[in-house]
């Protein structure tokens, strides 16, 4: 039986296809939120020097915010014309001038991929599924999601170019991470992967990560400063201990408890969705 290969080994295999996305010179994560979205990135060099050296865009000049509203504005040809704060502003102006009827305006549309309704759960989500904007007009869900992902991806690449990242400006040299809620099933996760591919992110360069899992990995890196001035990692992250992750989003509250593992402890996690 042939041995399985890692991504690095696969990249060395002679093939006519484009090489795998490894080794990565930069990792970029897109947080596609219900109410707000954003991205952050870290280069391999920065991570090795300081794992918490993470860069994020400041979306508003008047607000200290690393996220922008998850709002998308499309014209009558169903082409994205604005996203985030700019979409809110432009749609407000169009509405005041009564010119908004030919536009599609979506907000808080992420949770269309999840429903507690048994009837909607039985209806499988596909690339032909439609979602409604605030006026009730329809567009293919895959087009709305992929346009939003592409917008944030292009913003990140533009920022990298402006900062003269020599090798990281090419999308294929980046390990992309797209975070999703822990409550999403495989169908919703696959939908997001297809949307990312439609946004010109190669599947080989993409990792779909649960939001609580990403938060957990970050928290393990945060130093804890004691009253006596001593600084070290969180004491809670020891084999045998349990810790709780509370993810308070725009539409749901996810509480996840997890054990810190060693070789003798079973893998077990409890998730509560409110």
Describe what this molecule looks like in 3D.
The protein has helices at 7-11, 44-49, 85-96, 118-122, 141-162, 186-198, 211-219, and strands at 26-31, 36-43, 55-56, 68-69, 71-74, 80-83, 104-107, 130-132, 138-140, 174-180, 206-210, 223-225, 231-233, 242-248, 253-259, 270-273. It is α+β, with helices and mostly antiparallel strands and 274 residues long. The chain contains 7 helices and 16 strands. Residues 1-16 and 263-274 have low confidence and may be disordered. It is 26% helix and 26% strand. Helix 5 (141-162) packs across helix 6. The chain is globular and about 60 Å long. The strands form 5 sheets. Strands 1, 2, 3, 4, 10 and 11 form a 6-stranded mixed sheet that branches. A 3-stranded antiparallel sheet has the order 6-5-7. Strand 10, helix 6 and strand 11 form a beta-alpha-beta unit. The N and C termini lie far apart (46 Å).
Chain-wise SSE layout:
Layout: H1 7-11, E1 26-31, E2 36-43, H2 44-49, E3 55-56, E4 68-69, E5 71-74, E6 80-83, H3 85-96, E7 104-107, H4 118-122, E8 130-132, E9 138-140, H5 141-162, E10 174-180, H6 186-198, E11 206-210, H7 211-219, E12 223-225, E13 231-233, E14 242-248, E15 253-259, E16 270-273
Parallel strand pairs: 1-10, 10-11
Antiparallel strand pairs: 1-2, 2-3, 2-4, 5-6, 5-7, 8-9, 12-13, 14-15, 15-16
């Amino acid at each position: 039986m042939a041995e399985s290969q890692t991504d690095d080994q696969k990249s060395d295999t002679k093939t006519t296809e484009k090489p795998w996305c490894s080794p990565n010179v930069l990792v970029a994560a897109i947080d596609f939120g219900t109410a707000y979205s954003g991205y952050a990135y870290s280069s391999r060099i920065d991570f090795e020097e300081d794992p918490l050296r993470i860069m994020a865009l400041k979306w508003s000049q008047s607000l200290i915010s690393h996220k922008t509203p998850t709002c998308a504005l499309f014209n009558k040809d169903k082409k994205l014309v604005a996203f985030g704060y700019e979409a809110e502003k432009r749609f407000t102006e169009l509405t005041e001038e009564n010119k908004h009827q030919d536009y599609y305006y979506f907000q808080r549309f992420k949770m269309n991929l999840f429903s507690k309704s048994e009837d909607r759960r039985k209806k499988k989500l596909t690339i032909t599924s439609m979602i409604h904007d605030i006026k009730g007009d329809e567009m293919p869900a895959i087009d709305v999601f992929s346009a939003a992902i592409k917008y944030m991806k292009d913003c990140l690449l533009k920022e990298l170019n402006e900062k003269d990242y020599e090798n990281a400006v090419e999308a294929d040299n980046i390990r992309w991470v797209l975070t999703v809620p822990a409550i999403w099933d495989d169908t919703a996760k696959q939908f997001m992967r297809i949307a990312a591919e439609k946004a010109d992110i190669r599947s080989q360069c993409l990792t779909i990560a649960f939001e609580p899992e990403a938060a957990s990995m970050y928290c393990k890196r945060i130093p804890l400063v004691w009253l006596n001035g001593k600084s070290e990692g969180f004491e809670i992250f020891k084999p045998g201990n349990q810790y709780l992750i509370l993810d308070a989003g725009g539409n749901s509250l996810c509480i996840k408890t997890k054990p810190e593992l060693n070789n003798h402890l079973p893998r077990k996690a409890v998730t509560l969705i409110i």
